[in-house]
Amino acid sequence: MRFLTPLAASAALVAASGLVLAHGKHGHGKAIDYRTSVMTVFTWNLRPMGAMAKGKTPYDKALFARHARDLNAAAHLDLLPGFPDGSDEGDTEARPDIWLDWDGFTEKYAALKQATEALAAAAGGDLTSSVKDKLGKVGDACKSCHRAYRER
Ligand code: HEC
Question: Closest ligand 1 atom to the C-alpha of 149?
């Protein structure tokens, strides 16, 4: 700072604080990126299955099975390190209730894994009402957690 004019020094400070903001107010930007990226992978796989189940796109059993398998694999990533303490601050929709009720939050995550396992095991054949039911249960597992722990 010795060679900087006061004006240049304060400009440097403003630039540095902008950088901090861009990476999350409390340094949790990478964790927030991780968890929202995993959620993006969830949606990427869930949406086409939903479209097939509703008859909006033709049923392709191999494609459906692949999405069911990948969604199950993604659900089994360890998402919890993506929710470090205090990471309800910053550019995030995570509610503080996650850390106030950590057991409840992890139960919702476990319920998702069970639902995606059941769907992956059932996929690959005809689009029966049982398969649709299992897909519905996956969607319910997403919504149930979002209702409790995500801002909207
Ligand atoms: C255990 C709780 C939980 C489960 C289960 C869950 N989510 Fe989320 N989801 C969250 C939370 C919390 C956020 C907010 C994260 C943030 O903004 O930091 C979120 C955010 C999202 C987002 C927004 C991502 C972004 O870019 O901001 C999408 C999309 C999403 N979830 C899809 C899904 C889908 C699809 C499923 C089911 C297959 C699912 N989620 C299951 C807790 C959950």
Answer: 12
- Cβ neighbours for 50, distance < 8 A, ≥ 6 positions apart: 135, 139
Distance, in Å, from the CA atom of 101 to the CA atom of 93, rounded to the nearest integer, reads 16
Measured in Å, residue 10 CA sits from the centre of ligand 1 at 39
Report the distance separating Cα 28 and Cα 18, nearest Å: 15
User: pLDDT tens digits, residue range 72-90?
Assistant: 999 999 999 999 999 999 8
Contact 42, 79 (CB under 8 A): no
Please tell me the residue having the least CA distance from ligand 1 atom 1.
109
Distance separating alpha carbons of residues 69 and 62, to the nearest angstrom: 10
